[in-house]
Design goal:
It contains ten helices and six strands. The chain is α/β, with parallel strands linked by helices. The protein has two domains: 210 residues, Spore Coat Polysaccharide Biosynthesis Protein SpsA, Chain A (Alpha-Beta Complex), CATH 3.90.550.10; 70 residues. The protein starts with a helix and ends in a 17-residue tail after the last helix.
């Protein structure tokens, strides 16, 4: 931690900008928090927090975002794989009018099979689903506008999808190549086993991007299709029974049609309930379904 602090201070003092350093200890047991407290005693611009247990990277980032007070928040890992010297590059790009600038580990220093291959697969899949053309969604080194972060709640392992969610709200996103160092401390928990988790998270991402504010479009649409198929089958069987006088007792298709109609009705009902829950969610938390990039009025910017 001392090494990271020293490198950060060298970069931040050179920027000649107001800054603070927020450190989040995600429930470590190796003395990291004691070292972080020593940094607080020597530098009033450092603030630290310790989570009650290991809640994961998403929770740690969320805690850091909430504690940060600046207009721009730069996130990075503490394992020295991200290089603080890339921070000015992110901020310069951000000055071009972007809301989020993501780092791209173009020359990634990780094992190919266990780390880089799953990352390539995940980045391709997330890019296709979200429509956001980033090479490296998983790079923690990113710069965000604080106002943008206030509109995004993070759960599970959703930190890698922040650019996709932000783009869905209309945020302007850019990407810059950054350095990547070989891991010297700690052990990574990511690997091929994460592929299944990423696929499930991507399915959730698709729902959030396309139907979060209008779930009736998904469930109601599916319900009408399913119920329509069931009604068509039921109508045809009724025609056979009433006009062609064919018995239905030996026709399993009759039960199938009833089942499809019931499933369709249930899906529409789920859509209505989801709409009600969505409205409660946004209104109870005073959340918006949009993101305001700039505000202008006469005499003010």
């Amino acid at each position: 931690m001392a090494i990271l602090y020293k490198r950060l201070k060298e970069v931040l003092l050179g920027l000649e900008r107001e800054h603070e350093i927020v450190m989040v200890d995600d429930g470590s047991s190796d003395g990291t928090f004691e070292e972080m407290k020593r940094l607080v005693r020597k530098d009033k611009r450092v603030k630290v927090m310790r989570l009650a247990k290991n809640f994961g990277q998403t929770a740690a980032l969320s805690a850091g975002f909430e504690a940060a007070e600046g207009e721009i928040v730069v996130a990075m890992d503490a394992d020295l794989q991200n290089d603080p010297r890339d921070i000015p590059k992110l901020l310069t790009k951000m000055d071009g009018g972007y809301d989020l600038v993501s780092g791209w580990r173009k020359k990634r220093q990780d094992k190919w099979l266990s780390r880089r291959l799953p990352s390539v697969m995940a980045n391709w899949l997330i890019g296709k689903i979200s429509g956001v053309p980033l090479h490296d969604f998983g790079c923690t080194l990113k710069a965000y506008k604080k106002e943008l972060l206030s509109q995004i709640n993070l759960y599970g392992e959703m930190h890698r999808f922040i650019p996709a969610v932000a783009a869905g709200q209309g945020a302007r996103i850019a990407e810059v190549a950054v350095r990547h160092q070989r891991r010297k401390y700690g052990k990574s928990k990511y690997g091929l086993s994460r592929v299944v988790s990423v696929i499930l998270d991507v399915l959730l991402l698709k729902f959030l991007l396309s139907f979060q504010s209008r779930p009736m479009r998904l469930f109601g649409g599916l319900g009408l299709i399913v119920a329509g198929v069931g009604t068509t089958i039921f109508g045809w069987l009724s025609y056979e029974k009433l006009v062609m006088l064919r018995p239905l007792s030996q026709r399993p298709l009759f039960q199938v049609s009833i089942f499809l109609i019931l499933v369709g009705v249930q899906l529409v009902t789920i859509g209505i309930l989801a709409e009600m829950m969505m409205r409660v969610y946004f209104e109870s938390q005073n959340k918006k379904t949009y993101y305001v990039r700039e505000r202008w009025q006469k005499g003010k910017k």
